[in-house]
Each structure stands twice: as C-alpha cells, then as structure tokens.
Write a structure and sequence with these properties.
CATH architecture of the largest domain: Alpha/alpha barrel
Order of helices and strands: HHHEEHHHHHHHHHHHHHHHHHEEHHEEH
Radius of gyration: 24 Å
Largest sheet: 2 strands, antiparallel
Structural class: mainly alpha
CATH class of the largest domain: Mainly Alpha
Number of helices: 23
Length: 562
Amino acid sequence: MNESIESALHRGTSFLMAQQSEAGYFEGQLSSSTFPTCAYAWVQLAQNKLLDGTLVQWLLKNQNRNGTWGLDAGNQPNRDATLFAKLVLKHIATRAPTSEIEEAITRVPEYPLHLALIKLAYAAFGALDWSKLTISSNMLPAIRLAQKLSWLFPPLRILLKPPTNVLPPTDLFNTPTFGKLFIAEQHTLAAVFLIIELNTTGRPDIIDGLFSWLKSHVLTDGSWFRVNYITALSVLGLIELRKKEGRRSSELDRMIEQGLAWLDRTRNPDGGCREALNLNVWDTALSIISLIEIDASGYNNELQSAGRWLIENQNPDGGWAFSGLPGGDLPSDADDTALGSLALLKSKIPDTDTAIRGGLDWLCAHQGRDGSWSTYLPGQGDVGCVSITSHAVEAFIEATGKESEIDRACQWLKRRISAEGYWSDLWLAKYTYGTANAINALIKAGQRDCTEIRQGVRWLENVQNSDGGWGEDMLGKPSGSTVEQTAWCTYALLLANPQSEPARKGLKFLLDRQKADGSWEASCVGIYWEVIGGYSDSIYASVFPLIALNQARCITQDTSES
C-alpha cells in the first residue's frame, strides 16, 4: 500500500496544483442545485423574459423518476424543492409550452405548501393569498421572548426554533430583534419584507426603510451577501418596488442591473445555478494547508502566490470572508479566519506577520463566553460550531501562546458531544465532519486520553460503511460513501490510532477511487443551510483525501525510522 499511497499523493498533488488560478487562489466549481436555479428563473420570469433552454433542461434532467426534485447534488426527494420547480415550470409552460415540460409537470406528486419561502414564490405568481404568509404583529413580544431565552439558555435553541411555515410580520424590521438575528436571516428577511409590504399594506415608511437597508448592504460586486437566493430576493424586491410604485431612478435601475449581472455569474455550464459565487478563501486556505502537510516543496512559488492572495483579500478588521472581495464589504467569519491564519502560519511565507496577527486578534475578539466560535458574531442569532471551534484551536496551537483560549475551546468541545458519541456540525455533512474535527482538535491540544475522543472514535468505527468508506447527507442520514467524508474520518482515526483497521479500510477506499488524472469524484457534502440544501466542491475532493493519505505516509515513515 505504501507505493500506492506515494503514487496517489503525487498524482493528487499535480491535479490540485492545476486548479490554481493565475491570481494565486484555488477555487472549486460549486455544483448547481434546485433553489438557486429556480430563484434565477423566478427573477427572469418577473421581468417577462423567456428562459434559455439550458436552464429548462437542467430542471427536466434533474427531476427524479418519481416526479420530485432534490435540494442539491444528492437529489434526495424534497417537498419544497419539488414545489418550487413545479411552480417555475408551470409558468415557463404558459409562455413557451412544450410536451416535455407538460409531461414533467404531470409527474409531480401532490404536496401541500409548507415552507414560507416557497409560499412567498406562490404568492408572487398569484397562486396564494399574501395574507397567509406572515403571523400577526401581536406575536412580536413572543418572538422577542423566545430570542432572549435562547441566548440565556442555549439548550433551548432546539425547542425555540422559529416556525418554517410562516414568516414573521414585517413590523419586526423596525425592532431591535431584527438587528440581533443571524446575519443571513437579516439579509433574507429584509428582501422578503419589502416584497410582502409592497403587496399588502404598502406603508411608505416601512418600504423606504427596507429600501435603505438594501442600499446600504449591497456589495461592490452588485450582490447581497454573495449568495444567489438572497440576491435574487433582493432584486425581486427592487423590481417590485419599481413596478408597484412606479419609482424610476438611476440608482434603483443600477442596483437591479448589477444584481442581475451578478446572478448571471452564478450560472454553471450544466445550465443550473449555484448558491454561492465561490468559496475561494476557504478553498485556498485548505489547499495551502494540504500542500504544506504533504511537503510539496517543489511548488514554493505557487504557495507564495496563494499566500499573497490570501493577504490581499484579508478584511481591514483582520478576518477573512468566505469569498475574496477586497475592501472588506463581505463580513469576516470565524472559519475562514481560522483557516486563513492557519494556512499562513504553516506556510512560513515571508512578510506574513501582520496578516497573521490580525487573524489571531480577530479570533481572540470573537471567541464566545462559552469558549466556542460561531460563524460570525457570538450571541447575535449565531451558535457555536464544532468544526469552526476546532479550526480555531488548530490555528492557536500553531501560533503558540494561546493556551487559555485553547483550553476554553476544548472544554466546550467536550460538552458538545452527543450521548451517542458524535459531534454535530453546521457547515459540512454532518456528524462525520463534526466528530472528525473534534477528535483532531482534542488530540492536537494534548488531550488524547480523554473519554470524549474514545467515544468519538467508537462512533466513527460503528458507522463505517461496508465498502470501507463513510457517508451521510446534510441532515445526518446515512448514505453512500463519499471520498470527502471517508478522508476526514480516516485522518481522525489515524491520529487517534496509527494502526487503526477501519482507517486502513478507509485508505483503500480512497486509493481505489482515485481517477487516472489524480482527482476524486466530488460529492455533496457542503451545507448552505438546511432549507436551501448543499453543494459539492471539487477542491474538497482533493484536499481531504491528500491530507488523509499523507497522514498514512507519515506513520509509515515514523515506523521505518524507529
């Protein structure tokens, strides 16, 4: 197996290097999915435009045999994705009917409307009464109370989750509660509230306030939050504002046109749309880390180019956002900041001290009182995340001198383990990723003998598939094995026990599935959020297997030297 690992590392490294851009960053092609594709179609239909054939064909091609659509590349039947796709196809058919579209519509099973965001689309197309979208303003005190209780008693967050079948009243916008929502919720609701208010009570003060909010939060590239669905909703709100109120201004027109142009950039070659434009900061940081781990010394110039790109795209506050946008318009988040800092620390690239110090200072300032790191701001609708906290621990270990922060984070990680022995994560699928990251962080922090690691290892071993790999969907439901999940589980098991038999089976799975060009098949393991679905990223399918295979090589070298 040793020769096979060396060959796989060599070919995999060559493939990964081929993904680097001339500017220095690494960027995987994110997969198309139903929600962003339908959102793009909704925007085009709102302008009375005919959709091009490739988008229609993507929808038809991705319909399951039972007439449903899935949220993402996993294509597991999903009621909300199915209702969204059916709505879009029905309105395409009214303008450019084809037998193929009609046949697809007839195969769609009957589902009741549930998700409020899908109800919004149906209302916009005249298929639902606008009054059925929101709860009464009388419920605002209850919303404030639920928010306060969830901050004071974090375990209650599971019980106090807001309903998904109805939206809060637009009056929420003018309350302090709105400002304390998770940042993505704010961006979504501001656009949604504008659409609803324009089609219901039409209060000028609310409309003007929402329009001002959208103006102040549009990014320099014309998007909102660099996310397809949020940008589509924002553009739809502005189109509706122009239509309902007859507003004509160069500013409004420019915002709409720039938003439309940005949405066009989310189109993939397969005809569908991806939810985020790119995740190039994360992809670049992960690529640097994996190449440093492999000791790819023959690529020093390329590594320095990638490191310089990271520094150039660091935000003024010292953190990094998920996508490179110089100027700091896109907010810094803890995961990209942790991995960006770790990548620069490991790279030993000259003149990185200021950037590293900025990243570490940002992390110190954003560690929660409970010891965890959340995605953006602790306590503001955000929750501690296992993988992000683990990445921050690794960055602080590499930096040295942050023992207090590391200890608090490790104590939080230990408390977060489930009774079954797994950790749940927010951003990649799901229990395997959370568990692997927690094991890695605790071992590297010198807590190898703790009970939680033994529990996590036992859980990973128990959920290994018969083919030697690991797999689950974004909700944690067991699925077919993927190279990404197999790689991060194998790496964690090798850290815990270099002689692990389940890890050996995982290595064989990875070796058997590498392609001749050095790549692996990417699977849907990334999570936008559960309503929208997930994505695949070809960079993930390279860096995680390379890190796992390299860990096996290091164990072999250590054994032979001893």
